[in-house]
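User: Sequence in, structure out. Go.
Assistant: Echoing your sequence, followed by the structure tokens.
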Amino acid sequence: MPDMIPAAKPIIGDEEREAVDRVLRSGMIAQGPEVAAFEREFADALAGGRTCVAVNSGTAGQHLGLLAAGVGPGDEVIVPSFTFAATANSVALTGATPVFADIEPEFFCLDPDAVDAAVTERTVGVMPVHLYGHPADMTRLGEVAERHGIRVFEDAAQAHGATWQGRQVGTFGAFGMFSLYPTKNMTSGEGGMVASETDEIARMVRLLRNQGMERRYENEVVGFNARMTDVHAAIGRVQLGKLPQWTRRRQENAAFLSENLHGVVVPPVADQATHVWHQYTIRVPEDRDGFAAALAEEYGVGTGVYYPIPNHRLPSFDLTLDLPQTERAAAEALSLPVHPSLSQDDLERVVTAVNALAGAGA
């Protein structure tokens, strides 16, 4: 069998290594000028010029963003259950309650009608996830939020550069969080970025990431240690420059898959959206897990299942809810390789494998 085609593959080149060496030689390794430069460059490239604050993980960014926006005990924030657990965890860590709403079936993102129905007198916000690199419907979600007088907080962890009606994700809400984990569309090794609507939120995120102080020993609030190092920022700056080329490659790979796959439900793209294809996620209505196993064992095609257990059913939340589209997606969603490292031969092998197994009813 040929080598396994991985479902995801971080790309680290000589430029990233040289950037790290530059920082190490400088002797300034903790949060410093590289972080500040990365924040400015990220803001200009991916956040519509919003003030950006770098932190040590996407989860930290989401947690601190919510705290900076004033979310806390007694509040409710509406979130999808079909996503990584960090979305709901970040709400719970503020002392607020995550309220799980269903997704719409096409793009795996929050259903605005389900959000509308989930609003209570305690609801202070809604946190859509731009899942797999496809934007949530920010038009309708914005209308729901405005009608109820609640705020929007964006989880853009998987959607660097995605747009809705020409506007970059991460610029619709009080803040938008981007993850810089190794398997994301770009990485800083580990890290996150918070794009803030107001200077007040940005300043509070800065305080919270650094023990509650902007100036040394002048602690204004009780804070955390969630700083990004200059080493990580240096990697991120290089990756940011490569992201446009990588995104185009992801889009080309996705187009090839969509044009050539048969017998499975391929992911659509909304007319108003620019999809950046963090994942290429098909639906396999019958025996998804068996299908994935056969792809690996018979063809050497790796896949990912994101996410097999809806958040509301995890032991950490353990709720009984009626979220039919969420349950269906958890049983059917299968992500195929779409990353920029794929060769044409890799893509053709993925197509051959999926079509053969789908045609055989595997």
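User: And one key feature?
Assistant: Residues 85 and 311 are 6 Å apart (CA to CA).
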